Amino acid sequence: MKNIYLILSVIVLSxxxxxxxxASHAMGMDLSYIHISGDTYQITLSFYRDCSxxxxxxxxxxxxxxxxxxxxxxxxxxxxxxxxxxxxxxLCPSAFSTCNLGLIQGVEQYIYQGQYTMxxxxxxxxxxxxxxxxxxSITSIIVPGSMCLYVEATLDNTGSINNNSPQFTTLPVxxxxxxxxxxxxxxxxxxxxxxxxxxxxxxLDTSGFAVTYIPPNNPTYPVLDISGSIIFxxxxxxxxxxxxxxxxxxIAIRVDEYRNGVKIGSVVRDLQIVVQxxxxxxxxxxxxxxxxxxEGNLIDSNSIEACPGDxxxxxxxxxxxxxxxxxxxxxxxxxxxxxxxxxxxGTNPVTGTVTWTPLGTDAGFHNFMVTVQxxxxxxxxxxxxxxxxxxxxxxxxxxxxxxxxxxxxxxxFASGGSVFNWTVLSGEAINIGTNFTCTPC
Length: 441
Fold this sequence. Notes:
By secondary structure, the chain is mostly beta strands. The chain has helices at residues 2-16, 333-336; strands spanning 26-37, 40-50, 59-65, 74-80, 86-87, 107-117, 125-132, 148-155, 175-177, 182-184, 195-201, 231-232, 239-241, 247-259, 262-276, 284-285, 291-294, 297-300, 303-306, 312-319, 327-331, 341-346, 350-356, 364-374, 382-391. The protein is built from 2 helices and 25 strands. The strands form 4 sheets. An 8-stranded antiparallel beta barrel has the order 1-2-6-4-3-7-8-15. Strands 16, 17, 20, 22 and 23 form a 5-stranded antiparallel β-sheet that branches.
């Protein structure tokens, strides 16, 4: 069955997409799914097009296979949703991209959706899509205009898992500047609260074959950087780049989701980064990381830990080196952490205040992002920063214990945090007195 599917894929590439064989316009793409009921899932394809290329199709065919042969191969034709095809180029209002007869390379977003019922319960379903061809202006891979763009998602629908894939909330359309530090985060989250792990992977051509990179570019060093490497966080997916020269680079990232330590799905995102010379200075953190924290405990500049019931509050402060620029903030906080609020004050500097009181059911790792954007022209200066909150299941020092006067009190251990403050209750440990200290023990 697997060999038959490969043959069919080639036929579709040669004939079904023949009208796009020279349509060099693919800039980015990702594929995700949401569980509807039973074995039925809603599949979503987000596609990003260079406006200088040809128009896109009104439909997109997703191929569905089980490499083990557990279930029969199939496909579904997704259709464009309403109000799609929008220009998402990060421009000021007075500037125009090639999407609107301007001169700046423009990018449009197209979203396709459809529902599919899996024909069997398998742990190795692969959902895939490819579009031909990639943007010829790409400088990090060989002959990009002859390469297609392929993405896939994996699904395990055994044992009534009813899984939802990771979802992206940040647009993959970064335009960044030579010599200026750029922070980016995909804004991914899992609707089921599953743990996410991020990996830089090779960008793919048709049927999952890797493209050929131009050295020193490679999957883990996709953008040429002043330092000779980039900073990548596998826990949050954050990328920090200071590009060394003008370039157009491809980045591919896989997001794996784990439930109770077992991998149950993944999605791949492919995006294009445009690096150019800029006169605008992008906004940045005025105060590095989290400040003015009340309740909870600071782990590092971008991370805190807390317990259920803590009334968490902290500030994130940003500014722009161009004094006359205004700075705006947006965040996926309300989507990825229901019940949390993000309040914005000021324009330059601007402060985003996070407040949240986690419940016992919120135990686990929660990552959110903040997009910081100025009103520079023609291109808006943009940064995307990631922050995380670890909610412990609760702090405990074990069961109550009773000790007789003169006896030896053993060492007491606590769990559910990293910094503990201990207090002797008056009248209940008089023989220990004021000598009782432990932070932690």
